[in-house]
Structure formats: structure tokens, C-alpha cells
Design the sequence.
């Protein structure tokens, strides 16, 4: 219970940082990000939209992801861009530049 209370103190800070970073990504990359009610700690970006996957995989996680909740869901590889407050501004900018550099429109 104490851990939950301690973590809730960071909720508003984390939410604010995630929203700010999502807005920054949308503006800088000029991509339409699907918004849901849920703000996740990472932004999954389809792997098919990137070149030089080896360079990305050295710095960021690649995982299977699906936006669907259907029973016969197809999971596809995505790059996970961390958005949460434990990623410093410097780290976030480093990851963002790497993603932006390798993004195929």
C-alpha cells in the first residue's frame, strides 16, 4: 500500500511528460499518432516504417505489439520509444533523433 501511494505522487508528473513528448513527436515527425484513453510508458512504432534496423535495435527495444483486442490478433514487430519520466530529456532526445533519422515516410 505504501508503494502505491508513493508511486501515485509521480502519476501527474509522468502523465504530463508523456503527453508533452507525444505532442513533440507528432509535431516534429508530422505523423498521426493514434490516441487512446491509455497513456503508455512507451510508444510502439511499426518496424516496417524504419530503415537501418540494426542501428535502432542496438539502442531501443523491438517487440511484437498489436493495437487490437480481438481473439485472433496479429502481432507485428515495433520499436519501443520510451516516454516515461525515468528517461531523462537527454536520453529521450537521443532516442528520438535516432528514430527520426531512420524513419521512412
Sequence:
Amino acid at each position: 500500500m505504501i508503494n502505491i501511494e508513493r508511486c501515485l505522487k509521480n502519476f501527474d508528473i509522468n502523465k504530463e511528460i508523456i503527453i508533452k513528448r507525444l505532442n513533440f513527436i507528432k509535431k516534429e515527425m508530422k505523423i498521426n499518432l493514434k490516441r487512446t484513453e491509455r497513456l503508455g510508458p512507451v510508444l510502439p512504432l511499426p518496424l516496417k516504417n524504419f530503415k537501418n534496423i540494426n542501428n535502432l535495435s542496438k539502442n531501443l527495444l523491438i517487440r511484437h505489439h498489436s493495437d487490437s483486442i480481438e481473439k485472433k490478433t496479429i502481432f507485428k514487430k515495433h520499436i519501443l520509444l520510451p516516454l516515461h519520466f525515468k528517461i531523462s530529456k537527454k536520453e529521450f532526445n537521443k532516442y528520438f533523433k535516432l528514430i527520426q533519422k531512420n524513419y521512412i515516410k
In short: The beta strands are 42-46, 61-65, 76-82. Residues 2-102 form one domain. The longest helix spans residues 11-29.
